[in-house]
Amino acid sequence: MPIYLDYHATTPVDPRVFAAMTPYFMEVFGNPASTSHAVGLKARAAVEQARARIAACLHATSPREIVFTSGATESNNLAIKGVARTCGPRGRHVITAVTEHKAVLNACKALQDDGYDVTLLPVQPDGRVSVADVVAALRSDTVLVSVMHANNEIGVVQEIAALGALCRARGVLLHTDATQSFGKVSVDVQALQVDLVSMSAHKMYGPKGVGALYVRSPCRLAPQLDGGGHEGGLRSGTLNVPGIVGLATAVELSCADLDQDRRKQRRLRDRVWVALREACPDVLLNGPDPLTNPEARLPNNLNVSLPAAAGAALLAAFGDEVAVSTSSACTSASGEASHVLTALGRAAGLVNLRISVGRPTTDDEIDQVVARIARSAVRA
Ligand SMILES: Cc1ncc(COP(=O)(O)O)c(C=O)c1O
């Protein structure tokens, strides 16, 4: 097993999450919609408890504000299309940013194809969306602003609380994709003043294929799946009970362990950054400076661009022993260049590396990675 430094792509399931899920595969296997007997009711109780646990961690006002989905792709689609298609008569303008995840960008593109107007905001050199740009883009027919909490490639943390205050004052809904935030930065829906928040279990040491959307009451959404009307009519389909219990446990752990996790991850990430800077003086940092502006960047994220020769030497030194991403995993599935790095103005021909540490990363692993980085400098 290589040293895994790709925790933005996915995370292993935390043993505490796995233990919490286990009874819900074989012992408590009922369908939570089967309310005529105890088998179903037991599963339903687990789902409702999970909903309440997640709501408490987010400081939501009611468990009913949590809607379970299959992950953040679905949550983003439900938030964006759901708001736009409900608010249609009031306005058909949506604002988002060029560096959003494709699940947001392509949901907005689908709206555009349906005749909605979408403003795609540029970002500043460090990847941040300017609040002044959002102010300038707001119109009388704007119904939604969607800006991610933290970017999955360059780790930049957006000024969501400022956008929340702005949107609330202007009567416009704010959605944030917080998929990469849990366990790294606080996700408090009251402090952030957000109306919709997307999350995904597999990015926070939970299982794959389950997520949720926080929907502030009384915000109304048009469902995107037709079916039996589960989740208050917002998301039809039999609920993934073990996954939902796993998500709730993962969210709770991400809150309980937040301070210790982020302190450790930042320390390990900074060691890699310092080693890279020493080995390759020409390295270009993508996103905010981890050392001088740590609050603006996820504590576990490093994203750099290297001149071709130095990049090739580093990748050779990593070999099969260190697993890092040469761009976002979600992007590389389609074989395209990173739209995030393109938005930052990075030239073609550079070697782009995303290195993300995680809860299980050890000092010993980072010692080995740092040694390989130092060795690559000799060869470059
Ligand atoms: C910021 C962000 N949003 C959405 C997604 C999609 O999440 P999921 O895999 O749960 O559909 C990802 C996955 O990489 C992500 O990083």
Describe this structure in words.
The chain is α/β, with parallel strands linked by helices. It has 2 domains: 3-10 and 258-379, Aspartate Aminotransferase, domain 1; 59-236, Aspartate Aminotransferase, domain 2. It is 41% helix and 14% strand. The strands form 3 sheets. A 7-stranded mixed beta sheet has the order 2-8-7-6-5-3-4, sandwiched between helices. It has a 3-stranded antiparallel beta sheet with strand order 9-10-12. α5 (102-113) links the parallel β3 and β4 (117-121). The relative contact order is 0.17. Residues 328-332 have low confidence and may be disordered. Pyridoxal-5'-phosphate binds next to α4.
Total domain modules: 2
Biggest sheet strand order reads 2-8-7-6-5-3-4
Average pLDDT, to the nearest integer?
95
**In DSSP terms, counting alpha (H) and pi (I) runs of 4 or more, how many helices?**
14
Structural class: alpha/beta
Bound molecules: pyridoxal-5'-phosphate
Task: Give the H and E element order.
Answer: EHHHEHEHEHEHEHEEHHEEHEHHEH
Main sheet makeup: 7 strands, mixed
Strand content: 5-15%
- Named at the architecture level, the CATH assignment of the largest domain is 3-Layer(aba) Sandwich
Shape: globular
Q: Report the end-to-end length measured between terminal Cα atoms.
A: 26 Å
Name the CATH class of the largest domain.
Alpha Beta
Describe the structure in brief:
The chain is of the alpha/beta class and 380 residues long. 41% of the residues lie in helices and 14% in strands.
